[in-house]
Write a structure and sequence with these properties.
This protein has a domain of 31 residues. The longest helix has 29 residues. It is mainly alpha-helical. It has five helices and no strands. The two termini are 28 Å apart.
């Protein structure tokens, strides 16, 4: 697979993790902290905003081992596989 396809798969896993993660209720409870005042706080905006924040956090957190792997000299392809595997691992932890 090309690195672009691996990145799309990693983003997809991160989005799914944002919907089912155990951190989602915590982010939904903290909506006054991250919700901008220009948006009306409805249940939908709180849910989707919290899901987007958890998805972004998953994407960033799973990118750390990939950055270390690329810095260690594994190359871009293997680093992208590490990124995808770490996002999959976080998804499995969210399911558990």
């Amino acid at each position: 697979m090309s690195p672009q396809n691996l990145f799309v798969a990693t983003v997809a896993l991160s989005l799914v993790n944002g919907l089912i993660s155990p951190a989602l209720p915590i982010m939904m409870a903290l909506w006054p902290v991250w919700m901008p005042e220009m948006l009306r706080p409805s249940n939908e905006t709180i849910f989707y905003g919290a899901s987007l924040l958890v998805s972004t956090g998953t994407l960033l957190l799973s990118g750390l081992p990939a950055a270390v792997a690329e810095r260690a000299g594994l190359g871009l392809d293997r680093a992208m596989w590490v990124w995808l595997g770490t996002a999959g691992l976080l998804l499995l932890l969210g399911l558990g």
